[in-house]
Amino acid sequence: MPLSKWPTDDEGSASLEFITVGLLMLVPLVYLVLAVASIQSAALAAEGAARQAARVFVLGETDAEAREMAIRAVEFALADHGVPADSVQLAVTCSPQPATCLSRGGFVTVEISIVAALPLAPPFLSTAFGAGVPLQATATQRVSRFWGSG
Question: CB of 66 within 8 A of CB of 102?
Answer without folding.
Answer: yes
